[in-house]
Automatic annotation (TrEMBL):
Residues 27-105 form the NTP pyrophosphohydrolase MazG-like domain. It holds the Pfam family MazG. This is NTP pyrophosphohydrolase MazG-like domain-containing protein. InterPro entries: MazG-like_dom, MazG-related_YpjD, YpjD/YvdC. Gene3D superfamilies: MazG-like. Signal peptide: none annotated. It comes from the Bacteria. PANTHER family: NUCLEOTIDE PYROPHOSPHOHYDROLASE. Transmembrane segments: none annotated. SUPFAM superfamilies: all-alpha NTP pyrophosphatases (SSF101386).
Amino acid sequence: MQEEKRSLASMQEEVDAYIQQFKTGYFSPLALLARITEEVGELAREVNHSYGEKKKKPDEAPNSVTEELGDVLIMSIIMANALEIDLTESFERNMDKFNRRDQFRFERNDGRTKEEE
């Protein structure tokens, strides 16, 4: 049986329920940005190890790009929740912007160009 895919809204709710267990609650936006930055650095390290020239030392613990990208996602959700940002709305606005602004930024598979519009 295939698992049901989660929506951004359900992920935000699940993360909020997790955070609400603790008296501390959400950290300040600046502290959250520092945490996201830390996680992005860890992601960069894993990408470098997996796809770059700098391979891991034999005694280094195995991590993965998938795991680190997941950490970045969760920290992003935590920050969105702390700032009361609806990620579904944010996603829709940003995709609309990308689709309008970048419609012809790169060579298209269908061959269409801006001049043809």
